[in-house]
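Quick one, probably user error.
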């Protein structure tokens, strides 16, 4: 069994890369950002202030999250039985996720769920604190990053592909704001684990990033005599 932790700022390509690696190696992919997004979405739908820790933490007991994974569809996530895998991808849900993720009770609520998943099987898990908090003993830790401009550009293209009409400057502003919020919050801030390998993809394309990481995984598995 091998557990791969991929952390990094929003838009660095973590989920696209992790999804593809999981598929190629036939292992599970867990997107922890989706879990924070579900809580953000729930709080938005309830009309709560997503920065208010009291309001948000008191709604946690009403939330039941489930995930499913298959190679074809990747991870699907269910909020109280409703498949919200698409609904959590809006700019509002992104900002709400960043807001609720700063609340310690929200992090504690999701930590057990995430650790439980990491006990059972080989996986690639992506997020902000996977290598530092969720699986500190992961066999391989990668910190995936890229310049704010190139991350904003990728997000912009994603929205265009979905038929939306995004404004690049708004996306760049959100990227910079979320970076700041995610890395300066008190609870499990985004930071590189000391034993993580840093990979800056500003100048590296998707296919090359996937190859580099797959090679690292195979090398680590061989080094530790682990089966994947
Ligand atoms: O990866 P993402 O953009 O889907 O994550 C949404 C938000 O959730 C992001 O702003 C930071 C937060 N997050 C976190 O704090 N810890 C994680 N392990 C994953 C995401």
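Nope, works fine. Designed sequence:
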């Amino acid at each position: 069994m091998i557990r791969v932790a991929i952390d990094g700022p929003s838009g660095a390509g973590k989920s696209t890369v992790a999804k593809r690696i999981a598929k190629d190696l036939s292992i599970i992919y867990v997107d922890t950002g989706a879990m924070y997004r579900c809580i953000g979405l729930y709080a938005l739908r309830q009309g709560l202030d997503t920065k208010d820790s009291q309001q948000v933490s008191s709604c946690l007991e009403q939330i039941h999250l489930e995930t499913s994974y298959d190679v074809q569809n990747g991870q699907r996530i269910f909020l109280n039985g409703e498949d919200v895998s698409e609904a959590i991808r809006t700019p509002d849900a992104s900002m709400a996720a960043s807001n609720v993720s700063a609340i310690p009770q929200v992090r504690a609520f999701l930590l057990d769920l995430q650790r439980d998943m990491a006990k059972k099987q080989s996986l690639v898990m992506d997020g902000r604190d996977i290598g530092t908090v969720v699986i500190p003993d992961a066999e391989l830790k990668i910190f995936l990053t890229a310049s704010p401009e190139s991350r904003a550009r990728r997000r912009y293209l994603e929205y265009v592909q979905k038929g939306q009409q995004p404004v690049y400057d708004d996306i760049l502003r959100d990227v910079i704001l979320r970076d700041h919020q995610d890395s300066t919050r008190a609870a499990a801030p985004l930071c590189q684990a000391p034993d993580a390998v840093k990979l800056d993809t500003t100048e590296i394309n998707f296919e090359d990033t996937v190859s580099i990481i797959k090679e690292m995984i195979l090398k680590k598995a061989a080094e530790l005599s682990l089966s994947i």
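The pocket of 2'-deoxycytidine-5'-monophosphate is lined by residues 10, 32-33, 36-37, 97-98, 101, 127-130, 178, 182 (CB under 6 Å).
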